[in-house]
Structure formats: structure tokens, C-alpha cells
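Sequence, please.
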């Protein structure tokens, strides 16, 4: 039987209270997917080694962040240095170790760099376009709605106010599905952007780097968040707050469990 007590000797109620003070898109998304997994990650804080897929994603995200900063500074030399930046990021993201490559690191590294080169060739963002924001950390006080503080980091805000998010995936995304699957994230970004600027976002672009046999870049354009989507987000946040208050950490068994790093802990849950 698993005891519902967090790591590091922290009292469970205290940890829950901390989580009740602020919320992010990633926390809300995980809460909606599986509350027990949320408990393992954010309350018990059970650390798991990074997966190879996560490492590839973080490396590509880091390099594209550097690319955006270079355009913001007007540095036209980035593409000449891209291999150097990629190699440095690849090593830095492994400093904590723990990745089980199963002898496939070189292959994964090659695939990742090919995806990066593909993105820089096919990106819809002009080389001369100066970003409005890169890795922008924002927060919004939603106390007037009876909700906690919302926090988030926007990967990229284009010159026209379009919010861009980078993702890596093994399957080509379906536009309707990706709109549904990312709604919590995009609506959170919209709330943060509007609170910080007093303006409405121009829309969203999900830039998906697809790791198929023939790599692809799929750009999904989404409109600005609607009032209905914001209402749905706030209802999800209310459910989050209510569930934390009741410590409603129950599992959501399904096909997604086959790739969950907390499978063993979940099986021992009572």
C-alpha cells in the first residue's frame, strides 16, 4: 500500500497548500489526465530519470530558443553555428545523467539534428522577423475569479502577437485533435498574454517536429481563445482546487498507462 505522504519530509497538507497557491498549464493538463500521476509528480515529488524522447525534445527546444534569441538580437550568424549550439545543448541536457539510451544515443542524436535542420529550412518564421518575446515568464492574479495565480512560460511570441509552442512527436498531428489536446495550454497562454499586455493574442501556432521515418514539420494554426474556452479553463481550475482540497488523488487507468513512468507505484496504490 502506498502512503500518501510526500518526499523530503514535507507535510502533505503544506505541499497541497503550496500547489493551491499557483497553477500552470502543465499541472492542469496532468491533473486532467490522471490525478494519481499528478500526486506522484507534484505532491510526493517522486523523481524519475529523463527518457530519451524527453531529452531530444528539451535539446531541440533549447536550440530553437537560442535561434529565437539570435533573431531578436539581429545575429545573422546563428545558422553557421547551429551544429555547435546543438552539440553543446545535447551535452548540457545530460549533466544529471540517468538516461537509458540502450545503445541508441548516436542514432537519436542524428535524428534530432536532422529534425532541427528540417525546422530551420521549413519554418514559416522569416529569418528577419524580430520576436516580440522569447521564453517569456508571466503570471496572472486570478483572485477576482476565486482562482489561484496562473503562471507560465511562452516559448515564442511573434511580432504580430501570435504565440508559438514547439513540440516533438512520433505521429503527425491531426488539426482537430491537437486543438483539443492543447486547449488548456493555449488558453492559459492567452489569459497570461492578455493580462500582461492588455491586448488579445493574434492566435496560436503549434510547431510539431514529427519523428517519423521521413521527418516532417507540421504547423497547426489556431485562432485566439474564445470566451467559452476561458470559461472551460476556469471550470477546470475550479475542479483542480476542489480536488486538491479533498486530496482526490485517484488513478485514471487507460492505454496511456503503458508508457507511464509511475506504473509500478500506481499498481501498488490502495
Amino acid at each position: 500500500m502506498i502512503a500518501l505522504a510526500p518526499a523530503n519530509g514535507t507535510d502533505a497538507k503544506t505541499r497541497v497548500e503550496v500547489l493551491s497557491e499557483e497553477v500552470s498549464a502543465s499541472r492542469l493538463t496532468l491533473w486532467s489526465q490522471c490525478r494519481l500521476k499528478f500526486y506522484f509528480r507534484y505532491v510526493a515529488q517522486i523523481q524519475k530519470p529523463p527518457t530519451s524522447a524527453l531529452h531530444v525534445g528539451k535539446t531541440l527546444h533549447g536550440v530553437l530558443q537560442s535561434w529565437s534569441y539570435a533573431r531578436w538580437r539581429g545575429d545573422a550568424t546563428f545558422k553557421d553555428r547551429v551544429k555547435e549550439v546543438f552539440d553543446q545543448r545535447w551535452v548540457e541536457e545530460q549533466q544529471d545523467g540517468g538516461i537509458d539510451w540502450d545503445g541508441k544515443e548516436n542514432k537519436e542524436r542524428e535524428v534530432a539534428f536532422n529534425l532541427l535542420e528540417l525546422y530551420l529550412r521549413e519554418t514559416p518564421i522569416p529569418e528577419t522577423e524580430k520576436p516580440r518575446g522569447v521564453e517569456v515568464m508571466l503570471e496572472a492574479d486570478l483572485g477576482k475569479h476565486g482562482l489561484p495565480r496562473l503562471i507560465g512560460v511562452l516559448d515564442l511570441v511573434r511580432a504580430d502577437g501570435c504565440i508559438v509552442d514547439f513540440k516533438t512527436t512520433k505521429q503527425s498531428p491531426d488539426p482537430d485533435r491537437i486543438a483539443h489536446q492543447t486547449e488548456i495550454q493555449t488558453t492559459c497562454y492567452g489569459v497570461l498574454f492578455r493580462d500582461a499586455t492588455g491586448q488579445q493574442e493574434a492566435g496560436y501556432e503549434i510547431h510539431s517536429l514529427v519523428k517519423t521515418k521521413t521527418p516532417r514539420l507540421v504547423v497547426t494554426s489556431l485562432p485566439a481563445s474564445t470566451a467559452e474556452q476561458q470559461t472551460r479553463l476556469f471550470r477546470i481550475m475550479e475542479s483542480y482546487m476542489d480536488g486538491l482540497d479533498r486530496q482526490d488523488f485517484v488513478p485514471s487507468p487507460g492505454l496511456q498507462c503503458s508508457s507511464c513512468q509511475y506504473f509500478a507505484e500506481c499498481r501498488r496504490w490502495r
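The radius of gyration is 20 Å.
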